[in-house]
Amino acid sequence: MSTRSEQVKALTAQLEQGVKDIFHSDNYLNFLRTMAKFHSYSVNNELLIHLQCPNASFVAGYTTWRDKFHRHVKANEQGIRILAPAPYRCHEEVEDPITHELTVRQITVMSYRTAVCFDTRNT
Question: How big is the chain by its Cα radius of gyration, in Å?
């Protein structure tokens, strides 16, 4: 099993290659059709969905299918990997320019993790 950072790097590489390939032949038109279906996802995730499952009609996460739509994902189904935000908090020391006192403030740093969503055909 690869680590979380390796999974994110692999998805990012797939995304970069997809951006390069999207403007060839009819790929762009197909991508625009995909974008029209998945307006609640980021452009990056729309491209990842299009690259992994070009015929996807509606995608959602496992718990969304179960809780919101009352449908179950079939056993052993391969999902579509996307990037999900994973913010975390850390502390930073800041020096006051007048008093030269150090204060600690909490900042939020944005990171990403892989997440899996499933198409209607997987339920």
Answer: 19
Query: What is the distance between the alpha carbons of residues 55 and 28, in angstroms, rounded to a whole number?
Result: 14
Q: Where are the domains of the chain?
A: 4-122
pTM (2 d.p.)? 0.69
3-state SS string for 81-121 = EEEEECCEEEEEEEECCCCCCEEEEEEEECCEEEEEEEEHH
Q: Per-residue confidence of the chain (123 residues) as pLDDT tens digits? A: 578 888 888 888 888 888 777 777 677 777 777 777 776 888 889 888 988 888 888 888 899 888 988 999 899 988 999 999 999 999 988 888 888 888 888 989 898 999 999 998 898
